Structures are given as structure tokens and as C-alpha cells.
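Run log, item B.
One chain of 115 residues. Sequence copied directly from the ordering sheet:
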Amino acid sequence: MERAELHSRLEQKMNECWNDYMDRLLLLPPIQIIGKAAEIAAARTCYDELTESPSSYPENLLEHLVGLDDPLEVLRERWMDEHCGDQSIDVEHVLWSLWDYGPHPDQAPGMDGMS
């Protein structure tokens, strides 16, 4: 399959999966949708990346995705497995940043200010 055709098929499949996902979400009560914020963010990240920048990825990986029934769901779940675990180190970093620079990030010294 030519790369342009592959990108077109992937975009079509991702759009179908995204629309199905949104339809299922919108059937939920608002409180459940809010509870899925991390899942929605992961889905959006995967969707955006593969529809806006498919040329950044090898053909064999994209062909594999096109062959899946719901590539968005599979990617979203894997993304969450790899990125949504223990975030205590990240939170601690933010706490130290607040300690060092206060609540206004624009007042934090940039890398250019380091000596």
C-alpha cells in the first residue's frame, strides 16, 4: 500500500473511532464524563498525533494500526498504561517549583538566567 493511501485509511479509521468514542461518552452522565478526563485526554492525544502527523511514524506500525478493529481504543489504553501511573514524582517536582518560585510560573527564572 502506498504511504498516501495508508495515511488516508488511517485517518478515516481514526475519525470513525473518535466519533464512536465521543458518541459513547455523550451517553454518560456528566459526572462520569468528568471521571474519564484522563482517558479522554489520552484518546485525544493519540487521535491528534495520528491524524495530524502520520508521516512521523514507520509504515509497518501504521499498517498494524489500520488492521485493528479500534486502533484508537488500543492506543489509548496502552498510552494510559505507560503514562498515567504513579505521578508522585511529577507532583513533588511541582511542589518544589512552587516552593522555589511561588505560584506564578512567569516569575520563575528561565534557563537563560542560570549562571
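Observations after the first pass:
- The first helix runs from residue 3 to 26.
- The mean pLDDT is 88.
Flagged for discussion on Thursday.
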